[in-house]
Amino acid sequence: MKNRLQPLTDKEIQTVHDACMQILGNTGVSFKAPEAVEIFKRHGVRTDGEKVFLTEKQVLDALKTVPEEFTIQARKPINNVRIGGDHFAFGPAWAAPFVIDADGGRRTGTLKDQENFCKLVQTSPYLNLVAGSMAVPAEYPSEEADTRTLAACLTLTDMPLISNPCLKRNGQEMARMASIVWGQDITHLEHPVSIVSVNPLSPLSYSGDTLEGLMAFAKHGQALLISSMVLAGITGPISIAGTAALELAESLSGIVLAQLIHPGVPCVTGGTSCASDMRTGGVSLGGPESLQLVGIAAQMADHYGLPCRYGGNLTDAYSINAQSGLESALLMLAPVLSGVHFIHQSCGILGAYAATSFEKFVIDEEVCGMIRKAVTPLEITAESINTELIHRVGSNGSYMMQPETAKHCRTAFFPSQLTRKSTYEDWEAKDNGNIVGRASEYVKKRLESYVKPDMDPAIEKDLSAYVEKGK
């Protein structure tokens, strides 16, 4: 039987590749920054105004310098994260403009929200990275907001960093602030300390601001997550195959630019493309088409030897309900089973990226933990099977009181913090299945138990002075 998580045959992989090369060579991609176009020109790439046309050889030659896997360095080395190969990582919600509270009310984000999300990440057993702008502080101008959210990440956690949006000032500021923390120019470190999301402007375009950001982060040797969000039927073809080829062409063209700037800089391909709701013109993240796109992207990334990004605990719903649960779980499980290496937006998203939620964050954490447990290889040995135990219990006995059960009862199975396994009477008497209420209480518990990670007081003082100076 065909592996349904790998939808493409070898012939179909070649067909997608050929289509992608035709798009890059014949249609071209618009790079709306003269400096970027000049970089292509200096390397013999054909251009026409802002339009860049890449040959198959130019693409494949550039991809040879992209590492198949890489490390993002954390302030605390034990938290370093490996991306690519057999490794996969979970990152939290990022850049949503609103917060939805437990009562369902929607509001703009605050710096306090960002700080609390940082504390949840720091205390998370399942997340691998922290992110700037998990909440976007509306009380500050955008530049100051980015500075303060980044400072929160660096001081309140010791996790690897997903940087603020891909802008030149954010690339430069991340380098300055991280260099204060690491005590040296981060460009000279063995590994990047951050990864930034670089988003093409579909169809087949990169904005000037995004390109300036890409160039800034690449020059500092920071990892680049170059992925499109093509809306099938609106910013891409209505066919899933066509949208997948367009998404791939957009991503590969950005990766080529990054390698021309800084050969060997880590890059991740993929996307977050989805169907459109043709009745409203809106996004349809939670449809089965998203799962089809995941499989294609993962196979094409593997074909090129590139790390891949896709998926997340994503939903179109604006509240924590059955819709958000089923969409989120499907869009998290499919990428992991398909071999995706980086799952962005793994915790907290509601409303198709429009909002974050603290309660959704901790519920999504459970999904992350369950999935990681489910795909962890089992120990299949004579000792783990233990036929002697099975023989001892026999046909009608119980394993409950066996010493092996007592020894492993607290560690053998997934320790859910939020789901209930009880009788109907117990369920009805306690909270009638109110997972939002339980999640809200769990958020409070986590925030109360948070302990700030150690940082040299002199470094923290210098970082604070930098933030205040930039106001």
Topology summary:
Elements: H1 10-27, E1 29-31, H2 34-42, E2 46-48, E3 51-53, H3 56-63, E4 69-72, E5 81-84, E6 89-90, E7 98-100, E8 106-108, H4 111-122, E9 130-131, H5 142-156, E10 161-162, H6 168-182, E11 194-198, E12 205-206, H7 208-219, E13 223-226, E14 231-232, H8 240-261, E15 267-270, E16 274-277, E17 282-284, H9 288-304, E18 308-309, H10 322-338, E19 342-343, E20 349-350, E21 355-356, H11 358-375, H12 382-385, H13 387-393, H14 403-408, H15 424-430, H16 435-449, H17 457-469
Parallel strand pairs: 1-12, 6-19, 7-21, 9-10, 10-11, 11-13, 13-15, 14-16, 15-18
Antiparallel strand pairs: 1-3, 2-3, 4-5, 7-8, 16-17, 20-21
Helix pairs in contact: 1-8, 3-8, 4-5, 5-6, 5-17, 6-7, 7-8, 8-9, 9-10, 10-11, 11-16
Family: Belongs to the trimethylamine methyltransferase family.
Enzyme class: transferase
InterPro entries: MttB-like_sf, MTTB_MeTrfase
